[in-house]
Amino acid sequence: MKRILFILICGLFAFTSCQKRGMNLFRGDYSFKTSGSVTLDEIVTNGEEGDSFTVSLPNEIGQLEISVLGNEKDSVVVVMNTMGGEVVVTHALCQDNKIFLRDFTKNTLLFTGDSISLKNEVRVSASGQMYEDNTLIINMIYDGEAETNERNFKIHGDNIRMAAIRN
Q1: Residue 135's pLDDT band (boundaries 50, 70, 90)?
Q2: Centroid of chain to Cα 7
Q3: Average pLDDT along the chain
Q4: How is domain 23-166 classified at the CATH fold level?
């Protein structure tokens, strides 16, 4: 009886030690697509009410790489390489099946209803979750400012999502 119990405990220990958690779950190469929308609120100084627009972000596709950051437990480097665009590098913390990215800046292209395109740098806050060990969904919040035609706008978007599939 003791022998069976010992074998059962050893098997259970081996099974749980092989499960991917933290940085091991996220490490790898992914293909991603980002979509969502932001609100542009006009910044006015003389007390008037400014215009407000909701604009869709152009879909971004690219490659995402998550690699181990030295010997730090559950810390990773995230490299986002947008097709035809920029490369963004940030750090992240992995806990179980969740990932928390350090805030970073990126350029984004916005289109208003007046066919005006704005290329702006925005601050991005992001966190995500792994599903079925190969699908990573990252929720992002964009904040920034834009200027066009002598008008200034505050940019805010909190429904931006990146879907990334492990290659």
Answers
A1: very high
A2: 43
A3: 83
A4: Porin (2.40.160)
